[in-house]
Amino acid sequence: MERIEEITTEVCKTLIEPKEKDIEEYGLNIKEILAKLGELGFFGINFPKEFGGVGLSFEESVRASMILSYYTSTISMIIGAHQLASYTIMNASNYLKEKYLKDLNRGKLIGAFSLTEPQAGSDPTTIKTTAVLDGDYYILNGTKAFVTNAGLANIYVIFAKTDPNALARGISAFVVESNSKGLHIGRHEEKMALPYLGNATLTLQDVKVPKENLIGRANLGFIIAMKTLDQGRVLTASGAVGLMERALNESIKYAKERVQGGVPIANHQIIQSYLAEMKTLLETSREIVLRAAKKKDEEAKDFGLFSSIAKYFATNSAVSVSRLATQIFGGSGYIRGYVVERLYREAKMYEIVEGTNEIQKLIIANQVLKG
Ligand SMILES: Cc1cc2nc3c(=O)[nH]c(=O)nc-3n(C[C@H](O)[C@H](O)[C@H](O)COP(=O)(O)OP(=O)(O)OC[C@H]3O[C@@H](n4cnc5c(N)ncnc54)[C@H](O)[C@@H]3O)c2cc1C
């Protein structure tokens, strides 16, 4: 375990730390860093070696993600969205795994996961994109929204209705190559944070997809999506942990340096109380995220429940911790260029993606009421 943490820290310190501003503020060096991380195995840490992965546990992958997110949310989000595509393809035929998964795990291909639509976010059973079988091809039509890695990805995992009269049981998943005729990528959304994380709408107009590119069985795509999101939520939560650790470290440093009333602000008890609160939220989040990851490795039945608890708790905590960090920085915390104001804006994203925290609470409540 310590080994993955040491390796990830070393890679981040050499590859990412010196270029942090370039990545986050100017969008530079991202492709080169992704290529290098791909070569080093960071795209497929917990995927089987036979499919180009490193063969480590999910917990190890989550530990690496916590460290990566400490240094850069942009790159960790790109890899997280990519891995959603890879996790989905783990449910596919050996033909699709051979064709795409090896290259995805080695970073030679970038993936994206596209479930959300303009009218279907929290309730994806109501997606309207259709896939109609016509000879050897499925013909896809529809609009997908907020797709992370849009424009960067070589392949899109797209969820579409193969039975438009059904809800969850009418959805299938497909691998769609980015150069497919009829696949259009819209303008990148301007977001509150993460300007160089590509998010856009995809429009599909009579896109022909070979029938072999169906992932798993027709009409069983929703179950695959939910299984995939269970893993994605833990990765999102691990991103929130990395962000909190960074916010806390920046705050400790600043509190020791900044002098007001003749003493460092760290001497003021209210500031100490903020730091204590931040550390408590960080460590409790770390524990619950690692517990959820272990549940996945142990194939525990309640993994889904713990994935939602981890996502809800850690991402909620990240907003609180980064808000306190900006408060500790005073006026400077509100000024562009100080890392804490960026972390505060980034933290808000974690509460929304991979199912909002309201939806996580619904999942948790559903499980506890089932008994
Ligand atoms: C930066 C970013 C990246 C994203 N990347 C991807 C991606 O790669 N792939 C992808 O498929 N999607 C992606 N999304 C979409 C994201 O998953 C959705 O935005 C999210 O699931 C919420 O859906 P929505 O925006 O339609 O909100 P809505 O579903 O319209 O929800 C609006 C509000 O109502 C609440 N709400 C909805 N239903 C209920 C309910 N039953 N009970 C209580 N409250 C409810 C929500 O919690 C929320 O507060 C991304 C979004 C963002 C912002």
Overview of this protein structure:
With 371 residues, the protein is of the alpha+beta class. The radius of gyration is 21 Å and the shape is globular. The two termini are 34 Å apart. The chain has 11 helices and 10 strands. It has 3 domains: 2-105, Acyl-CoA dehydrogenase/oxidase, N-terminal domain (Butyryl-Coa Dehydrogenase, subunit A, domain 1, Orthogonal Bundle); 111-218, Butyryl-CoA Dehydrogenase, subunit A, domain 2 (Beta Barrel); 223-370, Butyryl-CoA Dehydrogenase, subunit A, domain 3, CATH 1.20.140. Strands 1-4-5-8 form a 4-stranded mixed beta sheet. It has a 4-stranded antiparallel beta sheet with strand order 2-3-7-6, covered by helices on one side. Strands 9-10 form a two-stranded antiparallel sheet. The structure holds flavin-adenine dinucleotide (FAD). The site of flavin-adenine dinucleotide (FAD) has 20 residues, from β1, β3, α10 and α11.
- Give the CATH topology of the largest domain: Butyryl-CoA Dehydrogenase, subunit A, domain 3
Uncertain ranges: none
In DSSP terms (H or I, runs of 4 or more residues), the helix count works out at 11
Full CATH superfamily name of the largest domain: Butyryl-CoA Dehydrogenase, subunit A, domain 3
Query: What overall form do the CA principal axes indicate?
Result: globular
Question: Termini separation (Å)?
Answer: 34 Å
Number of strands: 10
Query: Given the helix and strand composition, which structural class is it?
Result: alpha+beta
Radius of gyration: 21 Å
**Spatial arrangement of strands, main beta sheet:** 1-4-5-8
Helix content: 40-55%
Please write the string of helix (H) and strand (E) elements: HHHHHHEEEEEEEEHEEHHHH
Arithmetic mean of pLDDT: 97
- CATH architectural arrangement of the largest domain: Up-down Bundle
